[in-house]
Amino acid sequence: MYFPVAVTGALVYGKTVQANLLLSISPGPLLYMVQILITCHLVCSFVICLNPVAQQLEELLKLKKTFSWHRIVSRSLMVAFVLFVAETIPKFGTLLSLIGGSTITMMAFVCPPLFYLKLCSMKGHWPQIVVPLHQKVLLLEILIVGSVVGLMSTFSSVQSMASPDSFTVPCYINMTAACG
User: Fold this and answer.
1) From CA 100, how far away is CA 105, in angstroms rounded?
2) What is the DSSP letter of 174?
3) DSSP class of residue 91?
4) Is 89 within 8 Å of 95 (Cβ atoms)?
5) Residues 6 or more apart from 88 whose CB is under 8 A from it?
6) Is residue 14 part of a domain?
7) In total, how many domains does the chain have?
8) pTM of the prediction?
C-alpha cells in the first residue's frame, strides 16, 4: 500500500522528496486539502486504535462496562499519556521505524508463515493439512526475506536513534521551544 505513494513521490519530487511527503508539497489548496483529509483520518483512526487498549485497561482495573465517570477518567488519562509521549519524543519517526522494523515485520511476515507451517504439521483428531512443496518454498521465502529485511530495518532505526541529532529536549522542559 505504501509502495505506490513512495514511487509517486519519488517520481514527482525526485531527490527533493522528504521522508514526510507532506513536507514536499508546495503550500496551496492541494496541501490544505491533503492536511484536512489526513487530520480526519488520524482523528478517526486514533479512536479506533485507542479503544481496544482502553477497554483492556478498563478490564484490568475492573471498571464497569457501562458509561461512568471512571471510564471518562481512565480514557482521559490514557489520552494524556499519549500526548505526553508525543511531546517527549518530538522526532517520533525514529521510534516508529524501530517498531515497524521489528514488531510489525514479525507480525506480518515472520509469524504467519511460521505458525501456518507449524499448525499444518500438527497431528490430532482434525483433518490433516498437507502443504505442497511449492507453498512451503514460498512460505519459507517470505519468512527469510521478512526476517532479513526486518533485521536490516531494525538495525537502521537503532543506528538512527543512536545518532546525536536524533533526540531533542522536549518542549515542556525547554520553555523557549514551541510545542506542537
Assistant:
1) 6
2) S
3) -
4) yes
5) 170
6) no
7) 1
8) 0.59
Residue 112 belongs to domain spanning: 90-180
Instruction: Look up cell 522536549; give the residue.
Output: 170
pLDDT class of 9 with cuts at 50, 70, 90: confident
- Evaluate whether residue 180 is within a structural domain: yes
**Is 6 among the domain residues?**
no
List pLDDT tens digits, range 64-82. Answer: 989 999 999 999 999 999 8
Q: Enter the C-alpha cell of residue 171.
A: 518542549
Assigned domain for 156 exists: yes
Distances (CA, A) of 41 to 19, 54, 140, 156: 19, 20, 36, 29
Tally of residues, the chain: 180
Compute and round to an integer the Cα radius of gyration of the chain: 22
Alpha-carbon gap, residue 139 to 114, rounded angstroms: 8
* Exposure letters 106-141 (e unless 16+ CB within 10 A, then b): beebbeebbebeeeeeeeeeeeeeeeeeeeeeebee
b (16+ CB within 10 A) / e for 9-38: beeeeeeebeeebeeebeeeeeeeeeeeee
Q: Which of 163, 79, 147 is nearest to 112 (CA)?
A: 147
